[in-house]
Amino acid sequence: MNDPLKSNRKAELLSTQVEHIDITSFDARPIIDAMGKMSFTSRDLARATGIYNDMLSDKDCTVFLVIAGSTSAGGCMDLYAELVRNNMVDAVVATGATIVDMDFFEGLGHKHYQALEVPDDDTLRSLYIDRIYDTYIDEDDLQNVDHTIFEIAESLEPKAYSSRAFIREMGKYLVKHGKKENSLVKLAYENDVPIFCPAFVDSSAGFGLVKHQVDAAKAGKPYMVLDAIADFRELTQIKIEAGVSGLLMVGGGVPKNFIQDTVVCAEILGHEDVDVHKYAVQVTVADVRDGACSSSTLQEAASWGKVNTAIEQMVFAEAGSVMPLLASDAYHREHWKKREPRRWAKLFDQ
Question: Which one is catalytic: 179, 306, 337, 338?
Answer without folding.
Answer: 306
